[in-house]
Amino acid sequence: MSNTAFIGLGVMGYPMAGHMAKAGHDVTVYNRTAAKSEKWVSENGGSMALTPAKAAEGADVVLACVGNDDDLRSVVYGDEGIFAGMSKGAIFVDHTTASADVAREVGAKAADLGFGFLDAPVSGGQAGAENGVLTVMVGGDQATYDKAEPVIQSYAKMVKLLGPVGSGQLAKMVNQICIAGLVQGLSEGLAFGQKAGMDVAAVVEVISKGAAQSWQMENRYKTMLDDHFEHGFAVDWMRKDLSICLAEARNNGAKLPVTALVDQFYGQVQAKGGNRWDTSSLMKLLQD
Q1: Are 219 and 279 spatial neighbours (Cβ–Cβ below 8 Å)?
Q2: Are residues 264 and 282 in the same domain?
Q3: Catalytic amino acids?
Q4: Residue 9 shares a structural domain with residue 104
Q5: What's the predicted TM-score (pTM) here?
Q6: For every one of its 288 residues, what pLDDT tens digit does the chain have, with 9 covering 90 and above?
Q7: Domain co-membership, 111 together with 157
């Protein structure tokens, strides 16, 4: 068991840190809103700190899950940042979905200071975090990965090292690119079935056992047919992720025509007030 710290108790980080505590790790938490840290400690034990630096003191592994590149920098750098509290030889694992550029930047700074670093974005959403079955895509070196993996396993069903620092973020981009196209295709199929007068739930029962099957189909078709989107992975978050994908594509020359189109559709959902709706709300654009 390890001395650990977890920075960022959002909808993902809160349960992830909880699974670490349940697995027997000694966990110190930090959150910008101290009341959330207090609540977490009351439910899970461990301890809380008032700065990322204090949380990181004495930790073998420090983990973070925050919003974006700027949020990551704000908790890593400075006199009160994670790196100010870490000891040489400790490992920083970043679960934020961010750019590969910031992963490489933070990784280089960590190496200069004598810390290990892994960029390790996750997939599986809030439900995956709460149930401890996230998929974790990791970039870094093998030795650092081997030391941190037992901690990560406490909330993961799949964790894999995919290459050097930045590889985790690039894999997450592949994940989001695939999801964007799948959700649009599923939305169009369900809306088409409705217009055709089909019993769409019965249709899905059949086609979900064939080549059209996907996680999105299995887990979202019912709420989509019920016009219920107040749950799941928010459109605002997806647009943030797709902007990272599109920026990386401009750098590496990849062509993402469908992703760019779906990103525009999500912009239309935002314009309808659906910023916090689930990503499956693309269907709303086809019904109105």
Answers
A1: no
A2: yes
A3: 172
A4: yes
A5: 0.95
A6: 689 999 999 999 999 999 999 999 999 999 999 999 999 999 999 999 999 999 999 999 999 999 999 999 999 999 999 999 999 999 999 999 999 999 999 999 999 999 999 999 999 999 999 999 999 999 999 999 999 999 999 999 999 999 999 999 999 999 999 999 999 999 999 999 999 999 999 999 999 999 999 999 999 999 999 999 999 899 999 999 999 999 999 999 999 999 999 999 999 999 999 999 999 999 999 986
A7: yes
- Considering only CA atoms, which of 94, 122, 89 is closest in space to residue 107? 94
Number of domains in the chain: 2
Q: Which residues have a Cβ under 8 Å from the Cβ of 148 and sit 6 or more positions away?
A: 61, 91, 93, 116, 118
Give which of 125, 127, 151 is closest to 138, Cα–Cα: 151
- State which of 137, 164, 191 marks the end of a domain: 164
Q: Pick the closest to residue 20 from 42, 46, 39 (CA basis).
A: 46
Instruction: Give residue 104's identity as a one-letter amino acid code.
Output: R
Residue count of the chain: 288
Domain housing 199: 170-287
Single-letter amino acid, residue 249: A
